[in-house]
Amino acid sequence: RRPSDLGGAKIVAGADAGLDEAAALRRGRLVHLLLEHLPGLPPAAWAEAAPGILALEPGETDAALAADCLSEATRVLSAPALAPLFAEDALAEVTLTGDVPDLGGPMIGVIDRLIVTQDRILAVDFKTNAVVPATPGDTPEGLLRQMGAYTALLGPVYPGRSIETAILWTRTATLMPLPHDLVSAALARASCA
């Protein structure tokens, strides 16, 4: 089972960006690929490297979509406040497995960015939603459950450290920390479902 498969909405209710679900998911995968691979390159090389990176996703990517995804990734990677997420000591695409009590069996997930310090762990997931919630409490339930599962999986790996989660909303290049109680309550609702 995956943390992203715990039920609940993944987008803000009533949000319509003009993309069907398959197109929105594809766009999200393309932006994720750029955010995964571009940080290791100098900014001057991003535009040249982007087509090869985007080709890692099966299917044709038209020029307009490629340009849109590169523009979004560039805004994120150029935002000074987000620089720590893309520093050399940040862990990228971290696979995490373990058991979450009350969810019935093992879980496996991939955390987009993991920041590990002596007393704190920060798990960050990239979300490309067209409509960004105004507050953590407005975050769609499915995303809160996913982040709650990451918290539960990371706790045994890093005992004694504060486990924190946040969502990086790529459309606005903003990092939204999620209160522990909020994601824990969402995870509890998943276990009751």
Set out the fold topology.
Elements (H helix, E strand, L loop, with lengths): L20 H17 L8 H9 L8 H16 L12 E9 L6 E11 L3 E8 L13 H17 L4 E8 L4 E5 L1 H13 L1
Separation of termini?
14 Å
Helix share, percent? 25-40%
**Total beta strand runs:** 5
* Shape type: globular
| Rg over alpha carbons | 17 Å
Class by helix and strand content? alpha+beta
Q: Mind describing the biggest β-sheet? A: 5 strands, mixed
Low-confidence stretches: none
> Helix count?
5
Instruction: For the largest sheet, list the strands in their spatial order.
Output: 1-2-3-4-5
- Secondary-structure element string: HHHEEEHEEH
Mean pLDDT: 90
Beta-strand share of residues: 15-25%
Short description:
This protein has 193 residues and is an alpha+beta fold.
Structural features, described:
- β2 and β3 form a beta hairpin.
- This protein is of the alpha+beta class.
- The longest helix is centred in the first third of the chain and has 17 residues.
- Strands 1-2-3-4-5 form a 5-stranded mixed beta sheet.
- α1 packs across α3 and α4 crosses α5.
- The mean pLDDT is 90.
- The chain is built from 5 helices and 5 strands, in the order αααβββαββα.
- 37% of the residues lie in helices and 21% in strands.
- The two termini are 14 Å apart.
